[in-house]
Amino acid sequence: MTEAAQPARGAGAFSAFERMVALRYLRARRADGFVSIIAGFSFLGIMLGVATLIVVTSVMNGFHRELMDKIIGINGHAFLQAVETPFTDWDRVSAKTAKLPGVQLAIPMVEGAAGISTQFGQSGVLVRGVREKDLTRLPGVAGNVKSGALAGFDKAGGVAIGQRLAETLGVGVGDPVSLLIAKGVQTPFGVAPRIKAYKVVAIFSIGMSEFDSVFVYMPLTEAQLFFNKENEATVVEAFVTDPEKMDDFRINVEKSIDRPLIVTDWRQRNKTFFDTLQVEKNILFIILALIVVVAAFNIISGLTMLVKDKTQDIAILRTMGATRGAVLRVFLIIGASIGVVGTLAGFALGLALAKNLDTIRVGVNKLFDANLFPAEFYFLSRLPAIVDPREVTAIVVMTLTLAVLASIYPAWKAASLDPIEALRHE
């Protein structure tokens, strides 16, 4: 046996000899340039597939988190409403609720639909009557006041409105707005509508266009008069530390508060919305994963053509002492190399895009004078992206597994070649 055969015999699995042969086969030459082109497309497919999966899952995670924060940040996690008797003991109920384990805040409110108008525009709104001490602690509003102030809100007798609503009505702090409800004052001729003017004392921006164009806050006592709810509240909203433990909250309410209540939570009010978001995420993942699957098929076709092109070389290696296992591992290394390099490139590209997605959106909007991700359609004022390490790990593992599996059949075909038959036809 010649000395050249010794490395093939004595070397262990995935030895330097096998890696050297695999690297030589991966290099482009005129004779097998087409094979290298297929390998290049496989690399690009894997890179783009991984990057796209990382970006899309990150955006869907960002949507879920942002919408959860915005919706719950303004609406609370649990809602307590009175039954059988008017909700005149709202102060006692809210105080007891605030003392329950895991409760951060309990806010009594008077809620009602109304029309709002100025000389520049009009809109339908949801009016909420709250106390100043509660409004300044409300997660969605506190810290998001863009103009005006909430200090002295109870005594000012004005209203706080969302920024988009202010733009629609063409008003600023200090300007008057008119609120109208159909069921106002009882007269001998029936119920007359009630219309009353209020000054805008604050403008806030929650960051969710639907809420910024709908909510109007006024002092609780004023809301009770406006909606004919003297000394009453319509709901007590509770904010908890762990939104996933709402069943424990319900049990604590039943044990601690001795009056008939209907208790609902964020899961019931928004279940369809968040379930739909999760379904969309899963469908997008499956569709985009097909990019990686197609790239894996390209690895199969590329390696199959490479095996056919290198039939004589494989036969010579076998006659020089290379084992079937060595040949198998050479072609596994080739396929796995394409998968590993493509996955790493896609991983880096996906993370870079996900981390700077909103910056890229703003830049594209300025460059092409476009309006990608309009807030009025997507509810959010920015494009959110949250990278989940577990999902990224799953994407990387899935891609590497597909690349290795795609390499097995061509590698097995190469290892199964009979060197005598191969050389006989040359």
Briefly summarize what is shown.
Helix content is 56%, strand content 19%. The protein has a six-stranded mixed beta barrel. One of its GO terms (cellular component) is plasma membrane protein complex.
Q: Largest sheet, if any?
A: 6 strands, mixed, barrel
Helix content: 55-70%
Low-pLDDT parts are: 1-10
Cα distance spanning the termini: 23 Å
Helical segment tally? Answer: 17
Rg over CA atoms = 33 Å
Percent of sequence in beta strands = 15-25%
Strand line-up across the major sheet: 2-3-8-5-7-6
Word description of this protein:
The chain is elongated and about 110 Å long. The model is unreliable at 1-10 (pLDDT under 50). With 426 residues, it is an alpha+beta fold. Helix 11 (266-309) runs parallel beside helix 16. The chain contains 17 helices and ten strands. The chain has a six-stranded mixed barrel with strand order 2-3-8-5-7-6. The two termini are 23 Å apart. The chain has two domains: 5-68 and 274-424, no CATH class; 85-259, no CATH class.
